[in-house]
Amino acid sequence: MASAADVERLFLQSVLSRGMVSKKLAQTLWERSIAAVKAANDALNIPHPRPEDGWNNFLSKVNKSLDKLDLEFRHLHDETSGKEMYALVNRKGDDIAQVATDYTPAEIAFFKAIVEQIMMAPREAFSVSSLGALRELNAIKSSMSKTQAEIVLASFVSRDWLLKSKRGRYSLSTRSLLELLPYLKSTYPDELLECTICMEVVTRGVACYTNNCKTRMHNHCFANFRRRHSACPSCSKEWPRESTEKLLPVGEGAAREGEDGKRRVRLKSADPSDDEEEEDMDEDEHSQQTEIQPERKTRPSRQASRTNARYNDNSMVIDEHDEDEDEDAHRQNPQRNRRSSRR
31-53 burial, b for 16+ CB within 10 Å, e for fewer? Predict the structure, then answer.
């Protein structure tokens, strides 16, 4: 005999068969689940699913049932369309084990390396080129061939883990942001940005052009905000009404050709209490496994550094001129360098 609890079961089965669904589709599935259960048992008194409060109460019941399984029916707005999307996600897992179901450990390591390059892209570009993605095979010392890696990349795209643009650049999809959000927050707390309006994670949108201003918005949030306001919500700088060209892009629009020639890596300081440092490492230097020791000095806040980097093309890139000077100094005073190495 059908019961009211069968509505939740039927709804979750419908969601699982579709993966990620919009809010409109999710509510439609809820209505049809109720209709199917009522058809099986006319004696059931199930409230009509029209009011918004009824939908929110239903979501609370669903997530309460899923809590013991470390699952959650989570929602997030699509960064491109602005639509509210829902998906059943895994709240438990080591690192990004959420993608481990259908992929081998080598493929997961490859995906993790790509995510790192996306998150650490300069000027908040949050994307990586095809060449940069394939280069990660050498970084993780994978036995995959280039052809195999291209097939895996296509699989990441077809299964909505990554997005691939017309320029051939890879970025995080809504599904990745939904499922990997806890991992991204814990691993890249300084790189992850939040929309000033909706407070959700933003990897594509616009930023205020005022130096050190922290305003970041999705494109759809910016469009809604500009209908009522003409100034930045953080720094109160008046934005031009006629054009938005002065606003800085967040996402692929901020990427510049040739930047993926240097891969960015996170180096941990010897002192566990110190913050993790970010350095650019040339591909040749990385292959030789040259160690780069971060300079210990007082640094500005990470957010300010990221904003200032937009105005300095050479920010966070190893200066080849400085390297030449260091090499000359090494030749002129080899004994001093040998003493320093002993320390």
Answer: eebbeebbeeeeebeeeebeeee
Alpha-helical segments (H) within 41-187: 52-67, 105-119, 130-139, 146-158, 174-187
Structure-token pair, residue 233: 């919500």
Measure CA 115 to chain center.
Answer: 7
- DSSP 8-state code for residue 232: -
Name the pTM for this structure. 0.71
Instruction: Please report, for the chain, the start and end positions of each structural domain, with discontinuous segments joined by +.
Output: 5-69, 97-187
Q: How many residues does the chain have?
A: 343
Query: Residue 337 is which amino acid?
Result: N
Contact 278, 295 (CB under 8 A): no
CA 106/CA 100 separation, integer angstroms: 10
In the CATH scheme, what architecture does the domain 97-187 have? Answer: Orthogonal Bundle (1.10)
From first to last of its 343 residues, the chain has per-residue pLDDT tens of: 677 778 889 999 999 888 899 999 999 999 899 888 888 877 777 766 666 678 888 999 999 999 888 889 999 999 989 999 999 888 775 555 545 467 888 999 999 999 999 999 999 999 999 999 999 999 889 889 999 999 999 999 999 999 999 999 999 999 999 989 888 999 999 999 999 999 999 999 999 999 999 999 999 999 999 889 989 999 999 888 766 667 899 999 999 887 777 777 776 544 444 444 444 444 444 444 433 333 433 444 444 444 444 444 433 333 444 444 444 444 444 444 433 443 3
Using CB atoms within 10 A of its CB, is residue 66 exposed (0-12), middle (13-18) or buried (19+)? middle
Answer for the pair 184, 192: CB distance below 8 angstroms, yes or no.
Answer: yes
Helices 105-119 & 174-187, crossing angle to 10 degrees?
80
Q: Closest Cα partner for 38 from 249, 312, 107, 30? A: 30
On the 0-12 / 13-18 / 19+ scale of CB atoms within 10 A, 75 is middle
